[in-house]
């Protein structure tokens, strides 16, 4: 999630998924269970929600442009550092049941509110 987080010993305040702040929306930073390893948690930004389409640009492993529609009950997660992120481009849409909370603040090493705006948006 660089540059939002450095990945080195940060502490964050997380709101458990609940109706208090409304549903998970595009731009939210969330903590979820890693789909390929349930013993790990990941922090990623929601880049699309159910019903929205995502374009996946060609890579060395897949030379075709792909369009994916996020199904009901899922979100599309991406890291802020797209060139070095393992995210929905690898896992596909993530079930909302794996999303455990919305990151609100970083409290260590420096206090900052986590923006719910997409980078570059």
In short:
The chain has one helix and nine strands; from the N terminus they run ββββββαβββ.
Descriptive overview:
The chain is mainly beta and 121 residues long. The protein contains one helix and nine strands; from the N terminus they run E-E-E-E-E-E-H-E-E-E. The strands form two sheets. Strands 1, 2, 3, 6, 7, 8 and 9 form a seven-stranded antiparallel β-sheet that branches. It has a two-stranded antiparallel sheet with strand order 4-5.
Order of helices and strands: EEEEEEHEEE
Overall pLDDT, averaged?
Answer: 78
Query: Helices and strands: which structural class?
Result: mainly beta
Instruction: Report low-confidence residues grouped into runs of 5 or more.
Output: none
> Rough shape?
globular
Cα-based radius of gyration, to the nearest Å = 14 Å
* Helix amount: under 10%
- Largest sheet report: 7 strands, antiparallel
Topology:
Layout: E1 11-16, E2 29-34, E3 37-49, E4 53-56, E5 66-69, E6 74-78, H1 88-91, E7 94-95, E8 99-108, E9 112-113
Antiparallel strand pairs: 1-8, 2-3, 2-8, 3-6, 4-5, 6-7, 8-9
Top keywords for this entry?
121 residues, mainly beta, two-stranded antiparallel sheet, 9 strands
């Amino acid at each position: 999630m660089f540059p939002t987080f450095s990945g080195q010993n940060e502490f964050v305040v997380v709101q458990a998924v609940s109706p208090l702040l409304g549903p998970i929306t595009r731009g939210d930073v969330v903590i979820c269970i890693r789909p390929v390893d349930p013993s790990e948690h990941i922090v990623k930004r929601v880049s699309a929600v159910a019903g929205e389409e995502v374009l996946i640009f060609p890579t060395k492993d897949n030379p075709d442009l792909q369009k994916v529609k996020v199904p009901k009950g899922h979100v599309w997660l991406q890291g802020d550092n797209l060139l070095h992120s393992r995210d929905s481009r690898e896992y596909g849409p993530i079930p909302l049941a794996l999303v455990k909370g919305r990151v609100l603040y970083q409290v260590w090493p420096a206090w900052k509110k986590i923006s719910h705006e997409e980078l570059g948006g």
